[in-house]
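Comment thread on ticket #2218

A.B. wrote:
> Attaching the input chain for the structure job we discussed in standup.
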Amino acid sequence: MTSAGPGRDLGSGGPITPPVADRVPDAVRSAGTAMSEPGAAPERAPSRRTAWERVKLARHPERPHTLDYLAEIAVDFVELHGDRAFGEDQALVGGLARVGERTVLVLGHQKGGSTRENLERNFGMVRPEGYRKAERLLRHAEKFGLPVLTFIDTPGAEPGIGSEERGQAVAIAESLLTMAGLRVPIVAVVIGEGGSGGALAIGVADRILMLENAVYAVASPEACAAILWKDAARAPEAAETMRITAEDLAGFGMIDEVVPEPAPAHERPRETIAAVGAALTRQLEDLLEAHPPGSDPDALLEARYARFRRIGVWREEVRRERGLPVEVGSRQ
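C.D. wrote:
> Ran it. Output below, let me know if you need it in another format.
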């Protein structure tokens, strides 16, 4: 075990005033600054950002990453390495830390802050050994009764031949299964890109939060456009159609809280990190109040199961020439 190094220098960033909101108010949705290039001064915001603009903000290279969050909101973070089977994966970090007054296990995708670091971190794309490391640490948390916090920020799982040969699909599936049955509270937050199964593998949580300018989707807009229209240039259209923004997913009931970004996270990193820390702490305390240590963990698992069963409800109707439609059936 080694103590993790500090996150990037985020600058002074002004006073930290963490906002708290269960949903993004209309005033906040229309507030903020316009998208800018790295190092550019904030500009006036449009009345409402498009989904594609939020995708570009979620991918911004100067957006805070998992270790930046841990450097600010966690104390005594001790990183744990390796899957005990193949090796270490730097695209996913995990370990023990103290957040507030509680010891927790933290997991998170880690992108790089430079080209060299991105190559070392594989651009946040986790290999099978990374997901097996996550599963090992989740079992560690369950054994010692530690709550789990996860930070999601990946374009997707690593798709290379080597990862396929080492069982990428099985590693993701086993991580999903482990989180679904984990007998301790789990809170997840999407801090940037939430891409496909690579994100979901550490996202089966009792509470799911998203930053206002984060996205969460089964595939990238470029991939969706290429599949549907054979034209990746139609990615902005695909992003709007896919309904992948925090506002959309909160409306569907798929996430529990949107953490506002009055200014994009790369422009006000300390304020954003403080807001995320406050939201994580509040959601975790609510969970522990509902399911205190020592209580029956089956109630926690049943609530987690019901939470995900509520996603994707649909109803089928038969149209007729006159009168109301006849409902054939519905399914969850």
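A.B. wrote:
> Thanks. Noting for the ticket: The chain has one domain: 2-31+42-331.
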